[in-house]
Request: fold
Amino acid sequence: MNFWNDPLKVAADWLEGIFAGWGMDAVLAHVLVAFLGVFLLIIILMVLDIFLVWVERKVVARFQDRLGPNRVGPFGLIQPFADIIKLMIKEDTTPGGADKVVYNLAPILSMASVLILWAVVPLAPVMLGVDLNVGVLFLIAAGAIGTLSIIMAGWSSNNKFATIGGFRQVAVMVSFEIPMLAMLMIPVIFSGSMNMNTIIESQNVWYFLISPLGALIFLIAAIAELGRAPFDLAEGESELVAGFNIEYSGMKFGMFFAGELLHAFTFGGFWAILFFGGYRFFGLEQVSPFLAVLILVIKAMVGYWVIMWVRYTVMRIRIDQMLAFNWKFLTPLAFVLVLVTALADALLASAPTWLYVSGMFLANVLTGWAALEIARSATHKEREQLEGAKQPAEVSH
Reply:
C-alpha cells in the first residue's frame, strides 16, 4: 500500500510490525500504536495552539490598527514561546481555603474537553480518528465537559467573583447549547446520518447553501459557547475582574487560555464539516490525504477568522439582554427552523437537485424574514409600553 494514499494505515502497520518483532502481543501492539497516534495528534494540536496565539494577536492588531507582536523573532513569530516561558516560571499559587483537587483538575478538564472533540474529526477520507456512527452525539457529550470545568474552577477557587463568573458563563453555555444542538440536527436531516464522515461525503452541495440560517445560528451559538465577545460576560472586568479563572496563575491560567483558542479553531472546523463540506473541495481531496487535511485546515481557519472578526468588532452586551436574545428569539427560531427543514426535506425528497436546493434556501429565507418581523413587532410594542409608562411621570413632574 502506498504511504501517500493511506499514511495512517501504512505507519500503523509498520509500527505494529516492529513491536511484533520485539515479541509483543498483537493486541497490545495495536493498543500501543493507537496510543502513539493519539499522542501525536495532541502534540500537533498543541503546536497549532501556539501558532493560533500569534495569529490571533496579529489579527486583532490589524482590526484595531496596531502592530501586534513584532519584536521577538521575525514578524514576532517567537513571541508565543516567550509567553509560554513566562507562564512556566510564574509562581503557581493556590488560594487559601480552595478545594485543591477540584481547583487543579479544572484546567486539565478544560483542555481535555477540546482535545477529545478531535477524536471524531475526519481529517481526510482515509484519515479518521474514531468513525462513530453517532459522532454528533459524541460532540454534544464532549462539549458538556467544558461546562463542568468552568463551574469547577469558579466554585473551587474560594472567591465570590470567580464563583459569580463561573455561574454566569455556565448560564450562557447551557442556554446557547440548546439552539446549537438543534442546528446539529439539520446536517443530520440532510445526510440521514450522525456520522461525521457521512455528513461530509453527502455534501455534493454545501449545506450552507441549503440552510444558511442554520449555519448562522450555529455560529452565533458557538461564539456564545466559547464565551467570546459579544457574549463574554464571564469576563466583565468592571465587576468580575477576570471571571471564573481569576485565581489561576502560571500554566494553569495558560491551559484555560490555550483551551479557549483551540476551542475557537475547533468550532471553526466543525462549522466547516457540518456546513461547508469539510475536507471536500471540487475533488481535490481525492488527490492526496495531505491535501484533504490542508483543505479542512484552511476552511477551519476561515471559520476561526470569522469568530475573531465578530469578537473584535461587536461590543459586549448585558447578561439579561444576552439571555433574552437566546430564550425569546434564537431558541424558538432554531426549533422552528428544524421543523421547517424536516418538512421541506420530506416534501422535496424526490425533487431534482436544483429544485431541492432552491426550495430549502427559500424556506430558510422565509423563516428568517418571519422571525425578524415578529421580533420587530414585539420590540415596537414593548417600546410603546415603556414610553407610555414614562409619559405620566414626566407630565406630573
Remarks:
- The two ends are 87 Å apart (CA to CA).
- The CA atoms of residues 329 and 372 lie 9 Å apart.
- The longest helix spans residues 353-396.
